[in-house]
Amino acid sequence: MSRFQFVADNSATFEVKRLCELVEIERSSYYAWLKAAPAREARAADDAALAERIRAVHAEDNTQGAPRITAELNDSAPAGERVNHKRVARVMRLQGIRGYVKKRRVRTTIPEPSGQKYPDLLKRDFTAPAPGLRYVGDITYLPIADGTNLYLATVIDCYSRRLVGWAIADHMRTELVEDALKAAAATRGTLKGSVFHSDHGSVGGFNRSSQHPLGITGGMGDGKQGLGEEDQ
């Protein structure tokens, strides 16, 4: 409640002068506020009507934000009904109407200059003549409601494109991919003699040490395939 509203609500019981002194406002300011009440009420009514129009547009496509909704409202609208995008944004904010906000893309491939480089054993050929010979990996980030991310590491057989192993965690450390490889080994019984393709990222840097116990020959690509961003 504003101080002006407090004075108005109690003016029938107490003297306006005393109330203004109590809340530390000038009487002239209070009376100016009181005089503007009809204009405020009219503006509030206009905002309520605009909110209904906004809701109608938003219901058709809830990804739209203030600029696009403003364009929709003004499309073929008479001059007297056109609205400013700042006003639309204000009403949307007050009414809790939100468009889709694209989240910042999470980088899941981070080159590691200090890491040892390994040859691309697949030579960009992501096919296989039989199951269990060639595998590729990927890391996908999964945004969750609290604003953080989970990370999903997968191992896919190049022959069948089947997902044979996966692991999920709230980090992108080496053990995330190790767990995915162990899951693949458990699914297939063994990964001995197979080739696993990853990138030159920080996650891929585990390649040699952690894959040897599983019997995998390590290979790395150019950072655009394998344990990298899902959209590359």
TrEMBL record:
Domain spans labelled Integrase catalytic:
127-232
Region feature (Disordered): 207-232
Pfam families, from UniProt? HTH_21 (PF13276), rve (PF00665)
The annotated regions of Gly residues compositional bias extend over: 216-226
Q: Which residues form the signal peptide?
A: none
InterPro entries tied to this protein: HTH-like_dom, Integrase_cat-core, RNaseH-like_sf, RNaseH_sf, Transpos_IS3, Transposase_IS3/IS150/IS904
Bilayer-crossing residues are none
Q: What's this protein's function?
A: Involved in the transposition of the insertion sequence.
Record protein name field: HTH-like domain-containing protein
Q: Which organism is it from?
A: Micrococcus luteus (Micrococcus lysodeikticus)
